[in-house]
Design a protein that fits this description.
single chain, Aminopeptidase, 28% helix, alpha+beta
């Protein structure tokens, strides 16, 4: 991420999501969300404050790793990460945390903004690795991904660039 701030959409908008790269002030939320939803991820141990700080310091040094906070107005309603690994974009830590406001389709809109951003940085394949049984599988299928491999409790999905989301 190299400490550059990226904002996609209309900052402060209350009618549609906008996205910004995670900042120092978001660390505790990210840690809490990941810990709360640990069963949905490959790394299922609790993340300590120190581990989160260490991860964030390393994240700031990675120029092609973007952890986006999905915002509605000034409230973070979730996060989506995308990083370049081995020449392929890898989607990670898709977490929706606010369900009380029922932002119908907001995470899908955010996901599509992030995909367009990533393709603008580098046009290449986009994949996800998801724990089998994770409820996010249906989200990814609905948003243009297809299952390409299922093995050892891991599902690999490939985003079909140009395929409209349902």
């Amino acid at each position: 991420m190299s400490a550059q701030k990226v904002v996609l959409g209309n900052e402060g908008d209350l009618s549609s999501p906008w996205i910004q790269t995670a900042e120092l002030r978001h660390q505790d939320s990210l840690r809490r969300w990941k810990n709360r939803h640990a069963a949905s991820f490959f790394y299922q141990q609790a993340i300590s404050d120190k581990a989160q700080r260490d991860w964030f310091k390393a994240y700031l040094r990675r120029s092609e790793d973007f952890m986006f906070m999905v915002m509605l107005g000034d409230q973070a309603i979730g996060c989506i990460g995308i990083r370049l690994r081995g020449g392929i974009w890898d989607v990670y830590n898709v977490i929706r945390v606010v369900s009380s406001i029922k932002p119908a389709g907001f995470m899908s809109l955010a996901f599509n903004l992030i995909i367009k951003f990533a393709q603008g940085v580098r046009s290449t394949s986009i994949q996800d690795h998801i724990v089998a049984g994770n409820s996010a599988i249906s989200f990814h299928l609905k948003n243009g991904c297809e299952v390409v491999c299922e093995r050892d409790g891991r599902i690999t999905m490939l985003y079909q660039v140009g395929r409209p989301s349902s």
